Amino acid sequence: MSYAGDLTVEQAWEKLLAGALLVDVRTEAEWNHIGIPDTSATGRAPLFIQWNLTGGTPNRDFLEQLRAQAPNDGQTELIFLCRSGVRSIGAAELAASAGFISWNVLEGFEGAPDAYGDRILNGWKNRRLPHSRGPRKPTTAGQGPA
């Protein structure tokens, strides 16, 4: 089974407002140094589950951690987010194969780099969707900020 499809950040935000749940699959280092999505307006905090651990090692416990945190009730849609919309495809595909309704966010949190390598063109934070910056509490077992 394949994931449900790709969404722009604006479409993802609309789905979140309608009851979907955001799953940020970036690394703990990215959450700590770049920032995290702020979904407080939806009434639901995002899930933070690393697809790859800091250093690039695949998180072999990803699906187990997702199952422990996300409802798999056949109704709740999960929206997967990474830095640029690439890692989140793998996460959405794996989740879909386990029975979750899964979407991928195109452009990701930071979007594509410009000609100088700066990520200022598009993505969640550059399209001014709610997000926060700053240090986060240390986490364990692939889970992100509390």
Walk me through the structure.
The protein has 146 residues and is α/β, with parallel strands linked by helices. It has a single domain (5-132), classed as Oxidized Rhodanese, domain 1 (3-Layer(aba) Sandwich), CATH 3.40.250. It contains four helices and seven strands, in the order E-H-E-H-E-E-H-E-H-E-E. The strands form two sheets. The protein has a five-stranded parallel β-sheet with strand order 1-6-5-2-4. Helix 4 (87-97) links the parallel strand 5 (77-81) and strand 6 (101-105). Residues 137-143 have low confidence and may be disordered.
**Backbone shape:** globular
State the order of secondary-structure elements, H for helix, E for strand.
EHEHEEHEHEE
Beta percentage is 15-25%
CATH hierarchy class name: Alpha Beta
Sum up the structure in keywords.
alpha/beta; two-stranded antiparallel ribbon
Q: Could you give the topology of this structure?
A:
Blueprint: E1 5-7, H1 9-17, E2 21-24, H2 28-34, E3 36-37, E4 47-48, H3 62-69, E5 77-81, H4 87-97, E6 101-105, E7 131-132
Parallel strand pairs: 1-6, 2-4, 2-5, 5-6
Antiparallel strand pairs: 3-7
